Fold each of these.
Amino acid sequence: MTGLCKLICITGIPGTGKTSLCRMLNLHGIKCTGLNGIAESSGLISDGVVDVDSLASVHIESTVVESHYSHFMKCSHVIILVDDEDVLRRRMELRGYSREKINENLDAQRAQTIYYEALDRIPAGRIFIIEEKSRDLDAVFCDITSILSKINNL
């Protein structure tokens, strides 16, 4: 991996815990940045759509980023979070998502859309899928830190 800038992208459909896990990483001294805040402060969101191409040119002082579209960035590695559909449905309902948007997101998880989008950009060996299976965030956090250790030792 000589010469490859490491940008580790945590992604997944809404409700998988990306933001919470990023917060946990920061609390444990691993700098993680949410892309939504950067896109918003940079004026790169219009009608709810992020200009990912322009976002990719913004300097980010972090090697770990999170968002449901982070896998469209220039990632060296991608970590995809997936969880139980019933759990995700409840979380999205609590956020006020429409039935149509919920079904669209769940269909994307079923079809592994994020995996294939990431695979268009990087080799499969640099894509990690964490199946949360409704485990608590501490267990998922341990999986993420294990993957980050593996990546850093490559």
Amino acid sequence: MSDVQRDKQFWELADSFIQLANSHLNEVKPSKVSASALFAASRFNAFLISASAASKEQLMTEKEAAIAYFLEQYEAMLRENIDEHLARYDQPDS
């Protein structure tokens, strides 16, 4: 995630999405919350990709590169977050 500027607003936005997901855990299985969050992110990113294209042709031309970019970013973020959990795995909860 080194390409993303880690400013206060970035973390506040991320935390607000996590808080919203967590608020559903009392009524919905974690796997369904996770799947719906992932779907929402993909839907929003598809909108961003589409909205940034000047034409359908440009969207079709740039589609695979955009998908590759988002897959790469997601993998990097997921790996970083799992590594953070691994680093704290044996520590008692604070």
